[in-house]
Here is the input.
Amino acid sequence: MEKINNINHLQRSTKVKTVVITGANRGIGLELTRIFLSTGKYAVIAGCRNPEAATELTKLGEEDSNLEIKALDVTDQKSAETFAQSLEGKPVDVLINNAGIYVDKGKGVLDADFEAWEQTYLVNVISPFRMIKVLLDNLEASDQAKILTISSQMGSMSLPYSASHAYCSSKAAVNKGMQGVALELKPKGIAVAVAHPGWVQTDMGGTAADITPAESASGLYKVVEKFSLADTGSFYKWNGEIHPW
Ligand SMILES: NC(=O)c1ccc[n+]([C@@H]2O[C@H](COP(=O)([O-])OP(=O)(O)OC[C@H]3O[C@@H](n4cnc5c(N)ncnc54)[C@H](OP(=O)(O)O)[C@@H]3O)[C@@H](O)[C@H]2O)c1
Here is the structure.
């Protein structure tokens, strides 16, 4: 039995790709980690701000040796560089920029809280680009690298929202920026997409949301598997449909 397990492990480890997921300790990021691991096709490098407090992620790591948990604050350049250096040049086949915040105060212009705006932009807009920059060598080392940034329908110009101007405009900004990155990285063979994960029952989405984190993550997994350089620069819904910009 032990021999069979060893052979299976060897067969598995020669085939597995590597996915980096940010904000992997809870919500959609945690479920993405679970789904990618469950396929047996991926090793997951899970970034989170505080690995010591990431109990569910730690439990997953105890059950599956294809999970590595690393400290990562996506807003902190030093933390992002240390995270990237710890990969020691290992190819990264998929980067999922999942970490995000929705600050639940000063949502309008009349009650705007500009510190909250700054923090929202730092996490939701600037950090996905920071992660691409620090991991570029690792992405280039993959045969078919893909970058998926978790955006939101709230950033779509075609849907009128008055929920939080900071959050909506941050997701619109990251969408536009990723469209440009798709063109910039196409010659390097790196495919880039953004996705709306659905309205999801997480700390951010709340309990009244439409779908579970597992439903969202399994849809997003299929999106990652499906998109390629041929459709780089696309905006997807979690169910694989194209989202209007
Ligand atoms: N839930 C929805 O309905 C919904 C809808 C549309 C889009 N989205 C997007 O989906 C993504 C995931 O959302 P979610 O619902 O899973 O949210 P969530 O439950 O609030 O989890 C957010 C995750 O992001 C991490 N994070 C925040 N700031 C970070 C930082 N500076 N460095 C590293 N990690 C950081 C959090 O880590 P800590 O535990 O350390 O805070 C946590 O792991 C976000 O980009 C969000 O905007 C969600």
In short: Residues 74 and 127 are 5 Å apart (CA to CA).
